[in-house]
TrEMBL record:
Gene3D superfamilies: Barstar-like. SUPFAM superfamilies: Barstar-related. Belongs to the barstar family. InterPro entries: Barstar, Barstar-like_sf. Residues 58-134 form the Barstar (barnase inhibitor) domain. The lineage of its organism: Bacteria, Pseudomonadati, Planctomycetota, Planctomycetia, Gemmatales. This is Barstar family protein.
């Protein structure tokens, strides 16, 4: 039987407990994860904070336009005063944000479905910009995640950063998962 090696210099050696970490669960499918009911997201944010992540949260339900989103990101992420308040500027600033070594930043977007439903809003583009910035940070072994909460289980996005936008599934509420078939036994 092969023994598990915990040599930190061996990059191919991953402790089994590390596989269960929330950040790794999210990153298996890409840097963007969708959440339904808030409780699971709160648990995951607490776990990420325990790993040393910064988790700035944004209530997207109060945003009435992309301009509101840019104002919130500029203030919450402490963008420089010259931030251009457009998607190119968002890409530039997210690519330059300070990410703690050996942990990361997880942007928490509460009620994103409300923002995504606004006419003329490019919600997918916002997620794609964040995914692109995440990829750039990963080149330097830093993690940028975006945890997207939705009250609408039908919310869907095309892939961002060439990765699917997946729902975080949870065992206790299988029938409540988007697209889950009702249990015929109940």
């Amino acid at each position: 039987m092969a023994s598990f090696r915990t040599d930190p210099t061996n990059l191919h050696s991953v402790h089994p407990d590390d596989v269960l970490r929330v950040d790794r669960q999210v990153l298996l499918n890409g840097p963007v994860a969708l959440y339904g009911p808030p409780e699971r997201l709160r648990q995951h944010v607490a776990a990420l904070e325990s790993y040393g992540y910064r988790c700035p949260a944004f209530d997207c339900g109060g945003w009435a336009s992309e301009a509101d989103m840019h104002r919130a990101f500029a203030a919450g992420l402490e963008f420089p005063s010259y931030y251009g308040r457009n998607l190119n500027a968002l890409n530039d600033c997210l690519s330059d944000i300070d990410i703690p070594e050996k942990s990361g930043v997880a942007l928490v977007l509460w009620r994103f479905d409300r923002f995504a439903r606004l006419p003329g809003v490019r919600a997918w583009d916002v997620l794609d910009v964040i995914a692109h910035a995440s990829w750039l940070h990963s080149l330097y072994a830093r993690r940028l995640l975006v945890l997207v909460q939705s009250d609408d289980p039908k919310l869907r996005f095309p892939p961002v950063g060439a990765r699917p936008v997946m729902w975080i599934m949870w065992e206790a509420h299988k029938t409540d998962e988007p697209g889950a078939e009702p249990d015929p036994a109940t």
